[in-house]
UniProtKB/TrEMBL annotation:
GO CC terms: BLOC-1 complex
GO biological process, one term: endosomal transport
The family this protein is said to belong to: Belongs to the BLOC1S1 family.
Protein name, per record: Biogenesis of lysosome-related organelles complex 1 subunit 1
Coiled coil as UniProt keyword: yes
Keywords in alphabetical order: Coiled coil
Coiled-coil boundaries: 5-32
Pfam families: GCN5L1 (PF06320)
Amino acid sequence: MLMSMVKEHQNKQALKKEIQEIKRKEACAAANQLTQALVDHLNVGVAQAYLNQKKLDAEAKQLHTSAVNFSKQTQQWLNLVESFNGALKELGDVENWAKTIENEIKTISNALEVAYKSTQENQPIS
């Protein structure tokens, strides 16, 4: 009887060990599934962040290119305005020169007229 009780106890212990081993394997499998699900969930977020970063990089390059083009256009406009300003200054110089010449010609004309009148007055009437 004692022997049968020992065997029965050992059988129960073995059965409990088998059940415990099965539950341990199930727990490991469940933990692996959970870990895989978490990794998959995180990978989706990482993949989305990577795609967003690629889009941002492309837009930053495009913005840089646009800024460089804008800078070139601005420089061209500045050069054009400078040349226009120079042309306006030249026109102002030409206008000033013309006014000076006109005044000098009037002065000479007046002097010649006065000289002519004085020679006409000083000539005896014949």
